[in-house]
Amino acid sequence: MKLDVESLRALRAVVHTGTFTEAAAQLGMTQSAVSWKIKRLEERVGLDLVKRGGSEIEATPDGRDLLLYGERMLDAHDEAVEHLSRSDLSGVIRLGTNEDLRGGELADVLARFGRMYPQIRLDVRVQLSGAVREWLDDGEVDLAVVQIETGDIRPDDVVLWTEPLRWVHGIDANIDADAVIPVVSFGPGLVYLDSSEEALKRSGMRWRTVLECPMLSGVQAAIESGLGIAALNPRNITDGMVEWSQGETLPLPQLTEVIRMGEGADTEVLRALRDALATALVENRT
């Protein structure tokens, strides 16, 4: 019995995404190619590895067992490839990013990049997108991962994902639209602060900001506790929140996460990090 790495990678993608379609998009393959790899893997091991026919593809018990070994095999394979593919490029990159990239997600990408480019030094700063954009414009960072309103995309931006904004509050909160509405905000530096405040002003509703916090965890905690409403994108909405019933009357812009280079900073070193971030983080979202 021989297990090939790419078939294991296809199995992992199918089980993690729950569909052949999403797995194919993630792997940059056709759906039929992914299906064929899974079928070939099942023939090699002589076992059914996924349950087909339901709304979501699931691993069989044998499939889960294989993935326990497969995850380690894939990690070891990829680390070996990264090590052997390491580059002699050298330099310093100052990267600015917002909190929409989860710490672990970003750390994984940067760790892989560090293994492939051991002579490039990374200096990373995290702040709200408005502040990161100012750093980029002022030349304080060379490359930025920032949130912008979709209409502000530049031709050379690398789009990672696009999402709508939603007005939300804590599950147990009772928000009375006829009373003064309590609002939780990230404060100055939030890219859509003006748009959200304009929506509230146009509605004619009475409102006041009850809390400003530049950290995502603080804003989430305030919303979940019932302190007020806030405008959030879906990836930051937790199970302790629900959409506000009056939110449809307060239109908000779509947000797009992009990778953006500083003016005049297009170098081979920066392109290497930009491409590494794009490969790992681009999502098919609408």
Describe this structure in words.
This protein is α/β, with parallel strands linked by helices. It has three domains: 5-84, Arc Repressor Mutant, subunit A, CATH 1.10.10; 91-162 and 256-281, 3-Layer(aba) Sandwich (D-Maltodextrin-Binding Protein, domain 2), CATH 3.40.190; 166-252, 3-Layer(aba) Sandwich (D-Maltodextrin-Binding Protein, domain 2), CATH 3.40.190. The chain is built from nine helices and twelve strands. It has helices at residues 5-17, 20-27, 31-45, 61-84, 103-116, 129-137, 193-203, 216-224, 268-281, and strands at residues 50-51, 58-59, 91-97, 120-126, 143-149, 158-163, 166-170, 181-185, 207-212, 230-232, 241-243, 255-261. The strands form four sheets. A five-stranded mixed sheet has the order 4-3-5-12-6. A three-stranded antiparallel sheet has the order 10-7-11. A two-stranded antiparallel sheet has the order 1-2. β3, α5 and β4 (120-126) form a beta-alpha-beta unit. The chain is globular and about 70 Å long. The model has no long low-confidence stretch (mean pLDDT 89).
